Amino acid sequence: MEKLDPSRVQASLATLPDWTLDAACNAIHRKFLFDGFVEAFAFMTQVALAAEKRNHHPEWSNVYNRVHITLTTHDAGGLTQLDIELARYIDAVAQRFALRGDES
Ligand SMILES: C[C@H](O)[C@H](O)[C@H]1CNC2=NC(N)=NC(=O)C2=N1
């Protein structure tokens, strides 16, 4: 999978307003705040199954009701279309939960 060039990254991010690009433009990240651990883990379970199906996996951490996700393509050394598509899927899953915000 080809690394996206900077203009493609910018264009894709325009459609993913809740995701932040890192300084090196090699990864995007988003923080989620759920009602509690059960909701956070249910969200993670759905994302995990989709990630495994795509063979494209998030870097993430969870503390109680917080989930922090970073997406990058290790094999390409940066962002690819796989990250953009996984981010879109993750946003769709998150929409089914009552998010308390994405502040940390
Ligand atoms: C061997 C296996 O196919 C690769 O390591 C896959 C697995 N999941 C992956 N996930 C992500 N985010 N980036 C990768 O480059 C990647 N590579």
TrEMBL record:
UniProt-listed Enzyme Commission number(s): 4.2.1.96
A Pfam family hit: Pterin_4a
Lyase as a keyword of this entry, yes or no, is yes
Reactions this protein catalyses: (4aS,6R)-4a-hydroxy-L-erythro-5,6,7,8-tetrahydrobiopterin = (6R)-L-erythro-6,7-dihydrobiopterin + H2O
A Gene Ontology molecular function term of the record: 4-alpha-hydroxytetrahydrobiopterin dehydratase activity
- InterPro entries from the UniProt entry: PCD_sf (IPR036428), Pterin_deHydtase (IPR001533)
Spell out the family assignment given in the record's similarity comment. Answer: Belongs to the pterin-4-alpha-carbinolamine dehydratase family.
Could you identify this protein by its name? Putative pterin-4-alpha-carbinolamine dehydratase
